[in-house]
Automatic annotation (TrEMBL):
The keyword Metal-binding does not apply. One of its GO terms (molecular function) is nutrient reservoir activity. SMART domains: Cupin_1. Belongs to the 11S seed storage protein (globulins) family. Gene3D superfamilies: Jelly Rolls (2.60.120.10). This is Cupin type-1 domain-containing protein.
Length: 356
């Protein structure tokens, strides 16, 4: 596979007063197009309001920073108004209409990672705005909107023409938006930073899994994921997705180093990583990461709602499952070398602390 897998930063697509929208382009990160996946980021200033829209792609939204309010309307369902905060993951299947609002001083930043296999453009999300200068109603004639909404011509012109902004606006300080309801979070959002740990390795790292057990709506979106926190100088075991899933990994905090190995044992990526980077691991390719002394956190979305991984180190690795004679023959080593290999990394750990 001759595709550039180098980590990339998002670039601003639009926005000014109230916030901005940033996206990763398939022209710079070609694996987006190859894998039919997309990535973008929304940043809202205080009183910033992302206008209602729906998308041609299913996604997972992950709150990177701040607190805010999200409105989510699934097809033929009532509006859910959720209080959202850092660490929240939200599954957004096809057909979901969403809006986002920040009433706090701290900037609200939301990451979107998802599947573009049914999108208009491979590797890119296309949003269809309900209002604004590029809203759906701006394309219809006054007569059509008037008859559809039972409004006179003057009212139609106001509804269609008054909102001259595109995508994001800044509301007045005193404007009252809907208050979130606690019960609306149930089944809609899952906080990865507050959840019980699925993996916890001393001086190694911690993992919280994002699957249909904790967020059933991921099944509708066809996506899963995890939040990984790697301690300083620790290593994440080489492993691969064994169910044909792609991995989209965003570096949330810190820095480190990544290696990816593909077909014929060829190293296809070796790079430093820093906060804000996104990189993609192709199907069945093996990835391993090492954190810098400051540690490194990342959020990954996987194109399977309940992904399965195979490790190449540790007690649960494929090597330890093979019989001794198979290992001897495969590596062309003697029995003593095979025993030495098998005697190492005997725990279930997928994270390894730095050498003493």
């Amino acid at each position: 596979m001759e595709v550039d897998l180098s980590p990339k930063l998002a670039k601003k697509a639009y926005g000014d007063n109230g916030g901005s929208y940033h996206a990763w382009s398939p022209s710079e990160l070609p694996m987006l197009r190859e894998g039919n996946i997309g990535a973008a980021k929304l940043a809202l200033e205080k009183n910033g309001f992302a206008l209602p829209r729906y998308s041609d792609s299913s996604k997972v939204a992950y709150v990177l920073q701040g607190n805010g309010v999200a409105g989510i309307m699934l097809p033929e369902s009532e509006e859910k108004v959720l209080a959202i905060k850092k660490g929240d993951a939200i599954a957004l299947p096809f057909g979901a209409v969403t809006w986002w609002y920040n009433k706090e001083d701290t900037e609200l930043v939301v990451l979107f990672l998802g599947d573009t296999s049914k999108a208009h453009r491979a590797g890119e999300f296309t949003d269809f705005f309900l209002t604004g200068s590029n809203g759906i109603f701006t394309g219809f004639s006054t007569e059509v909107v008037s008859r559809a909404c039972d409004l006179d011509e003057n009212a139609v012109k106001a509804f269609v023409g008054n909102q001259s902004s595109n995508g994001i606006v800044k509301l007045d300080e005193n404007f009252e938006m809907p208050e979130p309801k606690k019960e609306h979070r149930f089944g809609m959002a899952f906080n990865c930073e507050e959840a019980p740990l699925d993996v916890d390795i001393k001086k190694g790292g911690r993992v919280v899994l994002l699957n249909t057990t904790v967020l059933p709506m991921l099944g509708e979106a066809g996506l899963g994921g995890d939040l990984v926190r790697l301690d300083g100088s620790a290593m994440c075991s080489p492993g691969y997705s064994c169910d044909s899933a792609l991995q989209m990994t965003y570096i949330v905090r810190g820095s480190g180093h990544v290696q990816v190995v593909g077909v014929d044992g060829r190293r296809v990526l070796e790079s430093t990583l820093k906060a804000g980077n996104l990189f993609i691991v192709p199907r069945f390719f093996v990835v391993s990461m090492i954190a810098s002394p400051e540690g490194m956190d990342w959020f990954t979305v996987i194109t399977s709602p309940n992904p399965t991984f195979t490790q190449l180190a540790g007690r649960t690795s494929v090597w330890k499952a093979l019989s001794p004679s198979v290992l001897q023959a495969s590596f062309d080593v003697d029995a003593d070398t095979e025993k030495l290999f098998r005697s190492k990394r005997t725990s279930d750990a997928i994270f390894f602390p730095p050498p003493n």
